[in-house]
What we know:
Pfam families: Imm7. With 136 residues, this protein is of the alpha+beta class. The protein has helices at 19-34, 64-75, 122-125; strands spanning 2-9, 41-46, 49-58, 80-87, 101-107, 110-115.
Amino acid sequence: MFEFHGWARVQYHTHNTDSILQDRCWDNLVEYVETITNELVSLNRYNMCDSVFVTGQHNHRSEYVIELFQWIADNSPGSYGILYIRDDEDSSRLSDFTNCFRVWHLCRGTLHELDDPFLSPAIPTVEDPYGESRGD
């Protein structure tokens, strides 16, 4: 299972004061999101706060989630946010990440993957280990 939960505040610059530039930044993001085949990305503009929310589960890894946050980092360098991912099939990279969440930190035009100190290891922190004797 590929589980993901994330949010980002979208800003064209860290000193976001030009509404025309911010509108252009937002319009570019909307255009990009329209190219993604999914229904799990939510775009919100409210009270001068442009935000992206993404949450869901897929049967297998879906790169569009990370690619969305990378696109925001590359095209809206004033943006910041957090993306949590749990991928129980993630054993083919540098380490075995099958039993942990990974945190993607978005800030100042960069996206970094980090260890999660709060919900990992997923078993037993957020879930009990499987046991045939449980009866459920």
